[in-house]
Amino acid sequence: MTAPAIRLRGVSRRFGALQALRDVSFDVMPGERRAVLGPNGAGKTTLFNTICGDFPPTSGSIELFDRDITRLRPHERTRLGIGRTYQTSLLFNGLSVLENLFIAVRGVRPNRFSFLRPSAGDGGMAKARDLADRMRLSHLIDAEVVNLSHGQRRQLEVGMAMAGDPRVLMLDEPAAGLSPGDRPELLRLLRELPRTLTLVLIEHDMDIALPAADIVTVMKDGEVVVEAPPDRIEDDPVVQAIYLGDGH
Ligand SMILES: Nc1ncnc2c1ncn2[C@@H]1O[C@H](COP(=O)(O)OP(=O)(O)OP(=O)(O)O)[C@@H](O)[C@H]1O
């Protein structure tokens, strides 16, 4: 039987008296696009952080392709194949799109953090160009990051997370703060990601999450309340109660 890319079993997390996650269990299969939806405070970011290793769960276990990663540090998880974006941008503003991607590619190579100027024959450079292409940024390859739109920065952040050839890509609210005009481009990019990659998308916005996902997990108060394909989400009475009930 195929091992899930991510297997969560009874994952709980407390912050003092606050139970941010309660007994969360689900499997994300290889190649699947999973969106985790929920209102403010539902526990989405806490779940994301426990999977990426920012902090361990208080109880429960997390496996990556059958390997227990519950207590591993973030960089160890990166090495095992988890790529991620951050809510706050980690881009180098004074450098170009290509230079940012090149640094990300180099950062995951044995000679990491070498800031040697790239040469034409550098394999890292070819890979950075390929990533720019896949992120639909090839026309902006020499643009300084400071001059990019918010949406273009998001595209670049996904490219940076892809530089280490992750098996699982974790995206934390990629559509947050995007203008309506930037959203379709982000969605197109997400839908074009290779199916060899497993995608877990933490998202507030149903208009991004539903078209991008194969399966949607809806959370509320730290618990999974619905797990269903996207076409069953909007009409689900529990989801309607949550989203209409709190003004979303
Ligand atoms: N480091 C922390 N210390 C204390 N409480 C925390 C911490 N991180 C999250 N919480 C609390 O845990 C609960 C879940 O928060 P979380 O950020 O995971 O929700 P969320 O679904 O991501 O919400 P949002 O959509 O607003 O980002 C909230 O009540 C939050 O205040």
Secondary-structure map:
Blueprint: E1 6-15, E2 18-28, E3 33-37, H1 44-52, E4 59-64, E5 67-68, H2 74-80, E6 82-84, H3 97-107, H4 123-134, H5 150-162, E7 168-172, H6 183-192, E8 198-202, H7 206-212, E9 215-220, E10 223-228, H8 237-245
Helix pairs in contact: 3-4, 3-5
The structure holds adenosine-5'-triphosphate.
Protein name: ABC transporter ATP-binding protein
Domain ABC transporter: 6-246
GO molecular function: ATP binding; ATP hydrolysis activity; L-isoleucine transmembrane transporter activity; L-phenylalanine transmembrane transporter activity; L-valine transmembrane transporter activity
Report on this model:
With 248 residues, the chain is α/β, with parallel strands linked by helices. The chain is 31% helix and 24% strand. Helix 3 (97-107) packs across helix 4 (123-134) and helix 3 (97-107) runs parallel beside helix 5 (150-162). The N and C termini lie far apart (40 Å). Residues 109-113 have low confidence and may be disordered. The structure holds adenosine-5'-triphosphate (ATP). Adenosine-5'-triphosphate (ATP) binds next to strand 2 and helix 1. This is ABC transporter ATP-binding protein.
